[in-house]
Amino acid sequence: MLNAASAAPLSLLYRGTLESCNYDCGYCPFAKRKDSRARLAKDAAEVARFVEWAGRQERPLRILFTPWGEALVRRHYREAVAALAAMPHVQQVSVQTNLAAPMSWLEDIEAGKVSLWCTYHPGQTPQRRFLERCTRLDRMGIRYSVGVVAMREHFNEIRELRAALPAGQYLWLNAYDRRGPGYYAPEDLVWLEAIDPWFLHNRRPAPSRGAPCAAGEDSVTVDGDGEVQRCHFVPQRLGNLYSDSLETMLGERPCSRLKCDCYIGYVHRRDLPFQAEFGIGTLARIPLRLQVNLG
Ligand code: SF4
Ligand code: SF4
Is residue 2 assigned to a domain? Predict the structure, then answer.
């Protein structure tokens, strides 16, 4: 049976109705709408249903919220993270966040259960303020990663952020060269790869079609209605979390896409070293060597 306490952990990447954000990054492909009260109520009901479903499972779970916007400025996400972290079979709850939301609620959570994937967005908040909030996470014992979209306009901010963070802190960088192969100069690439040793893979991922990938086997994505896909990038419905058996959905399949260039996708590839390098910190993008407090 899959729903057994002894089964391998199942990772769930959750993305519901939410599509709004407190920031307005020019490079953001989503979060361009203002969610109405009705949409927010729908989103809250979806999240509550997901939490309730998680509470009925026996299999160990790892959860990452990958919203099309900022989730933690909404109380219902903060309450969902707290509720999930309190469940014995939930090993990790992670959230992609801009780290601008209230933080005091994290004081009451078992620190090793929650980890945050924090993106610094130059121009949206002063770097000093972002770093102060990282220090607050340190004090609370909450594990987190820090990263930036590596636009050329961000290079100075990246340089300053690298200098301000502790030497051992991994700083991930997402490539921004959609405008063509000449976006980065060769010396930029040397510098960026010295900061993030996995930058090259993000920028030029190995072809994925036919590659072995755990997405769909021990990791799935779920939307607000419970619709399940193997990952955010292969638009093939596997079933519904609330009405179908997981056993009928999960299975080993090679990747069907030519390219998988997003961390939340390629991290599941079995032929790449990410699972070994990140372990239980995989969902929050925290390398194993930095996971002192992760349970
Ligand atoms: S913080 Fe994230 S979700 Fe919000 S506008 Fe910026 S990139 Fe988009
Ligand atoms: S390699 Fe990426 S696109 Fe392909 S199945 Fe895995 S997560 Fe999905």
Answer: no
| pLDDT tens-place string over residues 33-54 | 899 999 999 999 999 999 999 9
Closest by alpha carbon to 21, among 10, 32, 36?
A: 32
Query: Could you give phi then psi for residue 145, rounded to 5 degrees?
Result: -115, 160
Nearest CA residue ID for atom 4, ligand 2: 255
Which is it for the CA torsion 229, 234, 236, 238, positive or negative?
negative
Q: What pLDDT score does 33 carry?
A: 81
Is residue 162 included in any domain, yes or no? Answer: yes
Closest CA to ligand 2's atom 7: 265
Instruction: Work out how many domains the chain is built from and give that number.
Output: 1
For residue 229, report the distance from its CA to the centre of ligand 2, in Å: 11
Q: By the 8 A CB rule, do 158 and 150 touch?
A: yes
Q: Looking at residue 19, which CATH number applies to its domain?
A: 3.20.20
> Residue 196: which domain range?
10-291
**Within a domain: residue 1?**
no
Question: Which residues lie with the beta carbon below 6 Å from any ligand 1 atom?
Answer: 21, 23-25, 28, 31, 69-70, 98, 121
What is the whole-number distance in angstroms between the Cα of residue 5 and the centre of ligand 1? 36
What's the distance, Cα to Cα, between the start and end of the chain in Å? 25
For ligand 1, atom 6, which residue shows the shortest CA distance?
Answer: 25
pLDDT in tens, 189-235: 999 999 999 999 999 888 999 999 999 999 999 999 999 999 999 99
Closest residue by Cα to residue 292 from 164, 160, 144, 132: 144
What pTM was computed for the model?
0.94
Residue nearest to atom 2 of ligand 2 (CA): 265
The closest ligand to the CA of 215 turns out to be 2
With 0-12 / 13-18 / 19 or more C-beta atoms within 10 angstroms meaning exposed / middle / buried, residue 232 is: middle
> Quick check: is 170 in a domain?
yes
